[in-house]
Write a structure and sequence with these properties.
Shape: elongated
Number of helices: 12
Strand content: 25-35%
Largest sheet: 9 strands, mixed
Low-confidence stretches: none
Mean pLDDT: 76
């Protein structure tokens, strides 16, 4: 080994130094990580809630395209459409924008917006070209929710609009619909926003919205009525037709006002409940307390046309109504009867000394009614209330000449005596006339007249023979008298004989009278069963039915 080699062998070994510092190689990954994290944070922070809406059908809806709009502003989009577990409905999954959470409660409503004609207006025409979208009526009241049931009928959106909501209760919906107008003195001031059954299912609850500033006109004494169609009133002044507008005739409507005999009162709060009357005439009817006296009426005639709610009148003034009627069979008399229960409201009858008279009536109402029946001849009868509809009513009349009667007890009710109605009395009188005419022996009377004439002729012949034996002075005068008597008898025979014109005309007149009475009796039957036929006629009545 050379010296150079030995020197290199014994040289000091090299030291490797590691440079500590940031390498430029890591800049790109770190920047990418920061950007990704920021984007993720932004996406998470700006992400809106995801909700599920259940509809009956997905007609017009498309995943990834159909929008959710509020006042034509996009606030969400449909992400997925699928069937539910039993395939009876479709579940739409949608993503909402950030900030919509406060409006997603159990009071929020969703529906599909399509072209629709309702309440006299047309909506959703823009969807003909752009396609259907989901509408929303957000509400901050209620509990937060993320699952909803879509409506099949679009509601009226009133969120953010100045005004007030009110609730109406009615027996039936009639021709009203969502969007039907609400009128105040024939000026539209609101509309129907929703309706549904009440909790008992026996009535209908409607929610209406009255726009500001007209909502202040709804006071505690306001009355609402169904203004659909038109009301026709026939009175001494002629025919009066009342309607709110052409829209209410075609699609229905509601009107409200304060009765003339009541003060307006104070304005009411949001969601105050009112009763919806059938028509304008009902709001003018005076309201009375719950004091009602119940009585029974027994009829053995036809009550066709009498219904529950029919008025009970005294001297043409309504004092009560019919509350029940049935058909029963009495085994003792072997006859059918119709017990009719009526309710009389004593407050409908005014008195000169109210306190004294009212106390007497309340203390002994049965005794008071007994006095009217026994001493003044109070009776109940059926009368026609409307010739157009054939409806009957109960009329209380005083008949002093009526057969003596008194009150009787049947179950829990006192029975007020009745008399036949006008039609029943007319039929009874006609039957009596026809029966009496049938008993007249016209043929026997004609035969007896013929026998009397024959005997008279024989007598004249004997007188003539006797006159021939008289002297010449008295014979001519007696023969002349006998001849005149014979001519008189011959004329009488020709006038009233069996084949005489008088007898023929009398028979013909009596026959025509009998036929006329039968026709009148048929007319009475027709008017009792179908009184509207006097206006429509038989053919018109068939078409009307």
């Amino acid at each position: 080994m050379t010296d150079r080699s030995q020197a290199e062998h014994h040289a000091t070994p090299a030291k490797i130094q590691v440079k500590r510092g940031f390498s430029l190689v890591w800049i790109v990954p770190i920047v990418a990580l920061v950007i990704g994290g920021w984007l993720a944070f932004k996406a998470i922070s700006e992400k809106g809630p995801v909700i599920a809406i259940t509809f009956t059908t997905a007609d017009g809806l498309e995943a990834g395209k159909t929008k959710i709009k509020f006042k034509d502003v996009e606030i969400g989009q449909v992400e997925q459409i699928a069937l539910n577990e039993d395939a009876s409905k479709v579940v739409v999954t949608a993503k909402m924008i950030k900030g919509s959470e406060p409006y997603l409660t159990d009071q929020t409503k969703f529906w599909v917006v399509r072209p629709r004609i309702s309440g006299g207006s047309v909506s959703g025409l823009s969807t003909v070209l752009s396609g259907a979208y989901i509408g929303i009526d957000g509400s901050k009241t209620g509990s937060p929710a993320h699952s909803f049931i879509g409506l099949e009928i679009p509601p009226v959106v009133t969120v953010g609009q100045p005004g007030r909501h009110f609730n109406l209760q009615s027996d039936t919906l009639g021709s009203l619909d969502i969007g039907s107008p609400v009128y105040f003195r024939q000026i539209p001031v609101g509309q129907v926003v929703s309706y549904n059954f009440d909790p008992s299912g026996k009535a209908v609850d409607l929610k209406i919205f009255i726009e500001a500033p007209h909502h202040t006109r709804v006071t505690e004494n306001a009355r609402f009525w169904n203004a659909s169609g038109f009301d026709v009133t026939l009175n001494a002044q002629g025919i009066k037709v009342d309607t709110q507008s052409m829209v209410s005739i075609l699609s229905g409507g509601i009107a409200f006002d304060t009765p003339k005999d009541l003060p307006a009162g104070d304005a009411v709060k949001e969601n105050t409940i009112f009763h919806l009357y059938a028509d304008r005439a009902d709001i003018q009817e005076k309201k009375f307390s719950a004091v009602r006296n119940y009585w029974m009426l027994l009829f053995d005639e036809s009550v066709r046309g009498l219904s529950i709610g029919a008025p009970v009148e005294l001297h043409g003034i309504k004092i009560g109504e019919v509350v029940d009627l049935n058909l029963v069979f009495d085994p003792r008399t072997k006859k059918f009867q119709v017990p009719v229960i009526i309710a009389i409201e004593p407050e409908r009858i005014g008195v000169t000394n109210r306190e004294e008279a009212q106390k007497a009536v309340n203390d002994d109402r049965v005794g008071f009614m007994k006095l009217l029946v026994e001493q003044q001849g109070l009776r109940a009868q059926l009368q026609s209330g409307n010739l157009l509809t054939g409806q009957l009513m109960v009329n209380l009349v005083f008949v002093p000449t009526a057969q003596k009667a008194t009150l009787s007890q049947r179950g829990e009710y006192m029975v007020v005596p009745t008399i036949p109605g006008n039609f029943e009395q007319l039929q009874e009188n006609l039957n009596k006339i026809i029966t009496n005419l049938g008993r007249v022996p016209f043929d026997k009377i004609g035969g007896e007249l013929e026998l009397m004439l024959k005997e008279a002729r024989n007598t004249l012949k004997q007188v003539g023979d006797l006159a021939g034996k008289l002297d010449k002075e008295t014979a001519p005068q007696a023969q002349a008298t006998i001849k005149e008597l014979q001519n008189t008898l011959i004329g009488l025979q020709q006038a009233i004989g069996k084949d005489s014109p008088l007898n023929y005309n009398a028979r013909k007149a009596l026959t025509e009278l009998s036929e006329t009475l039968r026709a009148v009796r048929d007319l009475a039957d027709t008017l009792e069963n179908r009184p509207q036929s006097i206006i429509f006629g038989k053919e018109g009545e068939k078409n009307h039915e």
